[in-house]
Amino acid sequence: LKHKAKKYDKQAADVNLAAVLGAGIMGGGIAYQSAVKGTPILMKDIREEGIQLGLDEASKLLGKRVAKGRMKPEQMAKALNAIRPTMSYGDFKEVDLVVEAVVENPKVKHAVLAEVEGQVTEDTIITSNTSTISITYLAEALKRPENFCGMHFFNPVHMMPLVEVIRGEKSSEKAVATTVAYAKKMGKTPVVVNDCPGFLVNRVLFPYFGGFARLIGMGADFQRVDKIMEKFGWPMGPAYLMDVVGMDTGHHGRDVMAEGYPDRMADKTRTAVDVMYDAGRLGQKTGSGFYAYE
Ligand code: NAD
């Protein structure tokens, strides 16, 4: 692994200015992380409220660091200044790497990727934070698909160390290496994976969720399962994790996995998760899922 890391380091271009498209849950987190680790970042959204939410989230996280004594107020001001909110492509010619983090819709992503490619230089690396859409498929919108790869963060971005760097069929070594280097600069642990449904993490996670849903369907107590999995050593059990991820995201992910791996993931048995999803009980985002939240 060390040998491979060195190989990537050599081919990486410097990222002195980044940009994130979409200032939502993920975009706001990505902007915060980049800024805190010293890479200025343009944060573009099409809605002013979106930008404000992204900035509010970043200043809340920075405020917590200051309160805990892990950062000086001047450093907080510097980090906040490193996030440059925008609704236009004004400064995109100076951007070295773009992270697309708009809504998970293939049509919207194709349009946004083609649009941003027209605004950056021929050397700019463009990445997507998609959770479920094929990187090779997204690259079809681009004139320079070699400059494109996946950069999949996990939620919440500031807490989750892993970043999957996804190599599409046409991704160049330089695109992959630059994305790996930028992830490291952000203090993350990148792993390079091939383009397939679920990439790496969700190929492991979804069968686990499926096993859990089956178990509670057979009468197991979800709170006990959570406690037992915590004793097993996981930071949280599957029910709590599903509440964090959200039943809507889980539902969509399950469909993607069923389509990708019909031989083993296309189980249509209705579970408690489907019942909650249909009732709009999506987890923490709606105030209730397996558990109730204030
Ligand atoms: P979100 O709905 O919170 O934010 C999306 C943002 O994109 C919104 O602010 C919206 O205004 C903006 N937007 C829409 N069209 C745009 C455009 N043309 N240009 C600029 N901004 C635009 O979504 P999210 O949860 O942050 O997810 C974003 C991406 O990250 C998706 O691809 C999702 O699959 C992926 N992802 C999400 C999670 C998660 O747990 N939420 C985890 C990993 C990856």
Describe this structure in words.
The radius of gyration is 20 Å and the shape is globular. The protein is an alpha/beta fold. 48% of the residues lie in helices and 13% in strands. The protein has helices at residues 2-11, 25-36, 48-67, 73-81, 106-117, 135-138, 173-185, 201-217, 222-232, 238-245, 247-260, 262-265, 272-278; strands spanning 18-21, 41-44, 83-86, 97-100, 125-128, 148-152, 162-167, 189-194. The termini are far apart. It folds into two domains: 2-194, NAD(P)-binding Rossmann-like Domain (Rossmann fold), CATH 3.40.50; 203-283, N-(1-d-carboxylethyl)-l-norvaline Dehydrogenase, domain 2 (Orthogonal Bundle). It is built from 13 helices and eight strands. It has an eight-stranded mixed β-sheet with strand order 3-2-1-4-5-6-7-8, sandwiched between helices. The model has no long low-confidence stretch (mean pLDDT 95). Nicotinamide-adenine-dinucleotide binds next to helix 2 and helix 5.
Compact overview of the structure:
The chain has 294 residues and is of the alpha/beta class. It is 48% helix and 13% strand.
* Tally of helical runs: 13
CATH topology-level name of the largest domain: Rossmann fold
Give the radius of gyration: 20 Å
Strand arrangement across the biggest beta sheet: 3-2-1-4-5-6-7-8
Annotated CATH homologous superfamily of the largest domain: NAD(P)-binding Rossmann-like Domain
What proportion strand?
5-15%
What's the architecture of the largest domain in CATH terms? Answer: 3-Layer(aba) Sandwich
CATH class of the largest domain: Alpha Beta
State the end-to-end CA separation. 44 Å
**Anisotropy-based shape:** globular
Report on the biggest sheet.
8 strands, mixed
Secondary-structure content class: alpha/beta
Mean pLDDT: 95
Domain count:
2
- List the secondary-structure elements in sequence, H or E: HEHEHHEEHEHEEHEHHHHHH
Which stretches of 5+ consecutive residues score pLDDT under 50? none
Q: What compounds are bound to the protein?
A: nicotinamide-adenine-dinucleotide
